[in-house]
Please model this.
Amino acid sequence: MNTNTWPVLRKYSATHLRRIALPVGGIGTGTVSLAGNGGLRDWEIMNRPAKGFVPSCHPRVGPFFALYARRAGAAAVTRALEGPVDEETYEGSVGARGLNHGLPRFRHASFAAAYPLGQVFLADPDVPLRVTIQAFNPLIPGDADASSLPVAVLRFQLRNPGRRKVSAAVCGSLPNFIGQDGGPIAAGLDRNVNAWRHAGGRCGIYMSSRGLEPDCEQNGTIALTVPAPAGGAQVTHRLAWRDRGWGSALLDFWDDFSADGRLDACPRAPDAQTAMGSLAVKLDVPPGATRQVTFLLTWHFPNRYVWQHKVKVYAPCRGVDRRVDWLGNHYTTVFKDAWDAARRIAPRLADLERQTVGFVTAFCRQDLPIEVKEAALFNLSTLRTQTCFRTPDGLLYGFEGCGDHGGSCLGSCTHVWNYEQTVPFLFGGLARGMREIEFGHATDKRGLMSFRVYLPLARAREFGKAAADGQMGAIMKMYRDWQLSGDDELLRRLWPKVRKAVEFCWIPGGWDADRDGVMEGCQHNTMDVEYFGPNPQMQGWYLGALRAAEAMARHVGDADFAAECNRLFAHGRAWMDQNLFNGEYYEHQVRPPADKNAVAACLSLGGGAKDVTKPDYQLGAGCLVDQLIGQLLAHVCGLGYLHAPAKVRRTLRSIYKYNRRPSMRAHFNCMRSYALGDEAALLMAAYPRRRPENPFPYFTEVMTGFEYAAAIGMLYEGQLREGLQCIRDVRARYTGRKRNPFDEAECGHHYARAMAAWAALLALSGLHYSAVEQTLTFGLWSGRRFWSTGYAWGECRQLPARNGRRIRLQVQGGALPLRILRLRQCGATCLPKARVLHAGQTLALVVRKK
Model:
């Protein structure tokens, strides 16, 4: 494919290249990131985060690609395939930022992205070729396995704008860094081995280790490969560089490659700790033509270990009991090593790219504001970072985010993962698996759901603490994922635990011990504290869970329980609207318990309540940024209003009025700073009336996942200007100059909560799908929208028609069971007979007004 076939959502240049690091890798495989100038950074392929890590085996030299180019009749030039060093941040050859600093580079670089597609455009008047670097990993909605491949596809497109032929070569150099992952270096690197392989239509360098313990988490294999030579191309290689001290190794390589674009063999020096392997492809580029060279970087690191407190975040190489602490990775059960991955992925690559580009093209050309598309698409990258992993059975787990060298906050934490709406609408099977974990493994016979899951799954309930928002949100997600999938067997199998999870609210000393539909008890929540007394955040989750449970109970024939949920919902809703709404927004009524014995032990983690009769860290009368989070998920699920619509709309206007800061310059913050200076943001809480002496700890902060939740709530209520401005505020902080556009941080990099941004697409398209009823619903709009259900995806075009709307529904992937197509505030069309629309099929019809 040429560059014109890749869609572009956002372009970056100059100082906005500085922080760009686009993760390239599959779901649960780890990634390496494409930097804004074309380099590779953040090598995170060995089962852990490694921010800033760039492997090196020679002084000041890390992985890089280089170009040799000689126009007929002119002298040859050699350049690193990267833009200029950022001179404003370069402080000498210190650490990763000092690697490769002495290599000649292209004068001009720019970056374009539409995740997972990243492109770097390089130009230099002294180089006879224009170069485009394309990097991606397959991403296909509904196909989790095709989106979980351990590969970085690196394509170098060489365009000759001149009138004479150019002899060119592209060379990739990579150290065998097996055993190095940015943390402590494992023993045995002196026995790392590079081998040349030429088989199965590919050739390249296969990297392994003979010195690491077999169970070491850093032990595995890496391969850098290209297609076997054809069409006049020549492939040469080195399995090692000479090591004569000082900078002679780099000098020798550069002289060799610069001479003719070919590599001469070099024996490995016996004292070289890790050998640098180099692979070069030489070819001719005719006048006015474009040629390309595609490298596959593949990896295979099978030794993932447990994440809970018994082993600190990640297991060390020694002293691990493999029988109970070893987990493994799903992708390493598919491929036997890195070479096998390259050999089997390569024949599929054209089709995988076609499907990926098809998805991204459909997504990017929908008629929605760019900030909405960017927030949804770029945060999808989190699913492919070390925030997430898949165990050999294919189940998906996630930290809350990534630290620099380890996962941040373990356990697929329910009160964080409640917010994300990306997985269910793109990979429904993975979302269903998370519900299996929550109800099938993490919920005990009392109905207590451990809001952090320990592993292996036999330990899932060991954490033994319940979070009010996490548990109620899981019930709503169960309803959502049942509706999207139509999987009645899943619902019926998990229903007993779902019911128990609701009934757990009513235990003595519990959240709603008096069973009146109002949460008054000790409520541990995503603010990492316990709230005491009724508050809008937890109460909204509770009302949403009751409504979802009622619908599921009716479906499985549990009429009495459905009636009880309905009773509690009706009373709880009326009570909240009457007692917590202060005319502008909903407040928290702080109600300390009489003593600690009034609180069920499984509900408290001691968050700010050493003396529960005088609790610290309460919300109180604050205007909380996500006080309507339950309502947001209810809209996503199609459950309707949990509160009086007029009060919902007034509350959202108050959040925009009181919580938004056009500038942070005058803002006092006693905790972490995620926005500074003249950046705009929504505060976690504002106190226009009265403030507790010591509110919950994060009240002065800003965090993007919460900002999205409020903004998308505004979009659902028709407050488009305000909602879009809040999303625009977030993305204006992630432009590459100060922060990486593909790394929205909270408690760690690539924070899962930010994947809430996907719901903005649902709000603006009015999308809701029920596979149970086989009904697809849209709002009223004109133009084109992308749609997805987790199992199918495509485009929908909508135009005015006489007495209705003309609809053209295209399925581009998966299969869509459909009986009714409905437009909100217009009407519905029942198809002549229920059908399943498959990829490539289009449905055209007119929906008449009521």
The radius of gyration is 28 Å. DSSP finds 18 helices and 34 strands in the chain.
